[in-house]
């Protein structure tokens, strides 16, 4: 529809277009990117009857506001927040019909960090390498939203099945007081002393305010090294726990670099990263190793 889509009224701290990302290009130096809380992204599309790869808007802490330039249906998932349409309260976690000209305002997160705005048909930004995701590290995909930006929408799907919104309206559980991350140890846990490995297993960290879409940074006790120097650059998977020289673990998220030279003491599985994406600064973090690592059973990460 000519002149349709969405107009950005308020950008909030950071609002980006996200989908399932662009996996399969690490050999070209391109991160996967995509929604940090994939469960919330997929839920928004489920509630609207969209395919799961349809693009949504990911907000950070302070929400955003958009004006509908055509009739559409929207839903807000992820971090709970106040939702209004033209200043009147609207439900969070349930589809809302927007008439052309209506302003949907997604307020600051009351729990968690990132909310997701889904629209019937998805945000139809220009795809790059098969994805519409904004990648803050490589600069691929749409720029973060600015006031006045206009985003097209895709063709809406048939209406969602009756009762779908009721059945799936509010899956959110308040974020835990402590973020416990499972860790498969290695491949470079042998670069750390037994004391450093015990610190990873028993120490309590906190989410740093310096965290972003590239990585969740932590504050807490340093992990002592058994080797000096650095590695030659090697591949870095999603969820890698890289330990820079100061010794505080960094968990790589969707926009992480594909290579690096700091040792990786372990890897957090992708399914556990949605919780990490919603952990506010100051949240206690504990690592729960589940594998023997390079030292072997009884001597490594566990």
From TrEMBL:
This is Biotin-dependent carboxyltransferase family protein. Keywords: ATP-binding, Hydrolase, Nucleotide-binding. Coiled coil: none annotated. SUPFAM superfamilies: Cyclophilin-like (SSF50891). Residues 27-301 form the Carboxyltransferase domain. The keyword ATP-binding applies.
């Amino acid at each position: 529809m000519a002149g349709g889509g969405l107009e950005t009224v308020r950008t909030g701290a950071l609002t980006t277009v996200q989908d399932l990302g662009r996996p399969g290009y690490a050999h070209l130096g391109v991160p996967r990117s995509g929604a940090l809380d994939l469960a919330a992204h997929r839920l928004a599309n489920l509630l609207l009857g969209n395919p799961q790869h349809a693009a949504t808007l990911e907000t950070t802490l302070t929400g955003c506001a958009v004006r509908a330039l055509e009739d559409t249906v929207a839903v807000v998932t992820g971090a709970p927040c106040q939702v209004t349409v033209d200043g009147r309260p609207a439900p969070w976690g349930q589809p809302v019909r927007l008439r052309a000209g209506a302003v949907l305002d997604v307020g600051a997160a009351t729990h968690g960090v990132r909310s997701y705005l889904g629209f019937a048909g998805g945000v139809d930004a220009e795809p790059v390498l098969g994805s519409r995701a904004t990648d803050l590290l490589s600069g691929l995909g749409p720029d973060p939203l600015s006031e006045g930006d206009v985003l097209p929408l895709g063709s809406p799907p048939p209406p969602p099945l009756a009762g779908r919104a009721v059945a799936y309206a509010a899956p959110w559980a308040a974020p835990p007081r402590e973020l416990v991350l499972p860790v498969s140890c290695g491949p470079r846990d042998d670069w750390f002393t037994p004391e450093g490995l015990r610190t990873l297993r028993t120490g309590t960290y906190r989410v740093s305010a310096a965290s972003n879409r590239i990585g969740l940074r932590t504050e807490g006790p340093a992990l002592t090294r058994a080797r000096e120097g650095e590695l030659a650059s090697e591949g870095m998977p999603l969820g890698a726990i890289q330990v820079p020289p100061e010794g505080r673990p960094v968990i790589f998220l969707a926009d992480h670099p594909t290579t690096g030279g700091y040792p990786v003491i372990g890897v957090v599985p992708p399914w556990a990263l949605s919780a990490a994406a919603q952990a506010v600064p100051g949240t206690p973090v504990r690592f729960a190793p589940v594998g023997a690592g390079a030292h072997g059973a009884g001597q490594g990460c566990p």
